[in-house]
Amino acid sequence: MQINKATSQKTDLDMRRxxxxxxxxxxxxxxxxxxxxxxxxxxxxxxxxIERIIGSKAPKDGKIKINMVDIAENGSTVPxxxxxxxxxxxxxxxxxxxxxNDGNPLSDVASYHLGPHNGKxxxxxxxxxxxxxxxxxxxxxxxxxxxxxxxxxxxxxxxxGG
Length: 162
Description:
Elements: H1 5-34, H2 43-54, E1 60-61, E2 64-68, E3 71-72, E4 78-84, E5 94-101, E6 108-113, E7 121-127, E8 133-141, E9 146-155
């Protein structure tokens, strides 16, 4: 039986390449498993995120409403609307509206910069929530005042507790 030398060399090369790929993929799997899971936001990290935005101001209650479900059967897309009671005039308007949470990997969700040209201080969006948590809205007003509201939302998976 005669063996083609070129075929034999190619087979040896393929085997070495396969072994190399197995080794690399095993090393990659070990490396990935050693990376810690993403940290989850906490009420303390949410407060720090709020302080980064508004500084040392003490936000007041009132003027803001969050319209959202109390229980979300699917946390992938939770619709919510945030409204601020403001006439939206040049002298009295909402300058910015910030959203935070205390249960997702990052506390900061979004910041919207508004002005009298907006007509009304209202935003609507869909938010991903990975577990039961608080959604926090902070409004910065043109007179320097800040307002805050917190809403707890229970996220269930397939209709079961969360």
